[in-house]
Amino acid sequence: MIGISDPRMAGRFMGAQDGAMPSVLLMRLEHAAALGPCDRAALAAAVSTFERVPARSVLVQEADRPRTGYAIVEGFACHYRQGRDGKRQITALLLPGDLYDPQASILGGADYGVATLTGCLVAAIGAPALERLKLEHPRIARALTWALLTEASTAREWIVGLGTRPAGKRFAHLICELQARLQAVGLASETRYRLPLTWEDLADTLGISLVHMNRVAQELRDTGLIIFRDKILTIEDPARLRVFADFNPAYLHLTPPAA
Amino acid sequence: MIGISDPRMAGRFMGAQDGAMPSVLLMRLEHAAALGPCDRAALAAAVSTFERVPARSVLVQEADRPRTGYAIVEGFACHYRQGRDGKRQITALLLPGDLYDPQASILGGADYGVATLTGCLVAAIGAPALERLKLEHPRIARALTWALLTEASTAREWIVGLGTRPAGKRFAHLICELQARLQAVGLASETRYRLPLTWEDLADTLGISLVHMNRVAQELRDTGLIIFRDKILTIEDPARLRVFADFNPAYLHLTPPAA
DNA sequence: CGATGATTTGACACCCCTCAAACAAAGTGG
DNA sequence: CCACTTTGTTTGAGGGGTGTCAAATCATCG
């Protein structure tokens, strides 16, 4: 695996991609609170570098004490823990607009790894810049807290899925979740999005074996709920899929609170 | 179920229990950061009422917008979600010293329920008092953030357990986790603590059926790892249990960070 | 002493895992 | 351009972990 701290990579894409990050990150954060032009400018300015990271690279090592925050601009990444027996469990998927906040440094070291699953375009924000951002822009601070709480809420929903739903419904539920989250940043329609993960990644997310993952996916195809070809996922019957998966998007908190 | 908002309950125990909460809550929060005498006094003063709540009472309804924070002083409570089919999945256990922070109100409504599992003594802290506490006492604010991050980290560890560990190791892991967390607030020795939950509560926590829960527990007893009688859990061989469960307490972040 | 809730045990079915192997696609080097 | 490797996908067979159904036992309590 290649770490993104490789100096040959750093900063290579500054300028060219300058506008891309704010777009997708802002789309996400503005689900939490309206941001002013000043907030947006500060956010864009806080990004130190854009980096292109190959698939399956480690962004944050388990037991690291990271000094940089990351925002995913393009591609899929994940939080994971690796067991002694080599089994990997993915504990969260990071989509474009999601961020990894080294606020975790309060804890005295990351207790999980962060890695890319596909090639990613990543915006790096230094911890000090992030702290300043929070102090000087309360609306951004609020939005970041919202993001953290939403992550926790999503983790709880995954616990519910792993604890109570059979593999098929679990996959269906994940498909619904990704549709909602990707649509929130403009990367999915009601019925279609790009899902560039391998069966193995999905299996490690759903807590099932690769073999069973394949069978479960076929079942969803055979029952006419989805089509999945060339990494493009098409939902054939959204309403029926949501019922089947027992999906209720409330836990994603994608609609801005009244306050 | 009886809600604690019942006026006959409110405030009944003020004074008598006045010192109990700070003790256990402070023991927990001081794992995050040292607190000054001023912080402690402010924390104690912020508690509006102590309430005795019977077992199986709902503290926060799913879809509520709670205006009160709770700190558990005695007893066990939980976060949970209930599926359409009636299956309950417990997503977090709240032990003495743990708190439920209505900070979740940023999200515009709770997305899960909070309920007592045993009879509990609960300290209620109004949302405004909590906000003031955070503003005027940065060390408390930091400690509360630490608590939130630790909860998220624990949720991730539960995902790992549900996704990768068989039921027996999952139970063993939970036993280790509870030992560490209870010891941190003075309610467990290295080998012994009170675990006042029913098999059903534990089954709903581990994501297995009540019947299987029973078998798995017997297995741990038969292999000489634990004794569990009269709600008292005794760990016969802590080292062997931790190896069996693949338990690494790092995710609990119970040792204060250097910073 | 009957009612209720908690624990225990047995039988059987099914979900899902493991092992194994075949197959496809994409890169790599000769 | 073709062997060859690597990575990802698909399929089959068999076994084990768990769920469900059913019923017995036990404890607590009014």
UniProtKB/TrEMBL annotation, chains A, B:
Tagged with keyword Transport: no
GO terms (BP aspect): regulation of DNA-templated transcription
SUPFAM superfamilies named in the record: cAMP-binding domain-like, Winged helix' DNA-binding domain
Domain HTH crp-type span(s) in chain numbering: 165-239
Superkingdom classification of source: Bacteria
Pfam families per UniProt: cNMP_binding, HTH_Crp_2
InterPro entries on file: cNMP-bd_dom, cNMP-bd_dom_sf, HTH_CRP, RmlC-like_jellyroll, WH-like_DNA-bd_sf, WH_DNA-bd_sf
Name of the featured protein: Crp/Fnr family transcriptional regulator
Organism: Methylobacterium planeticum
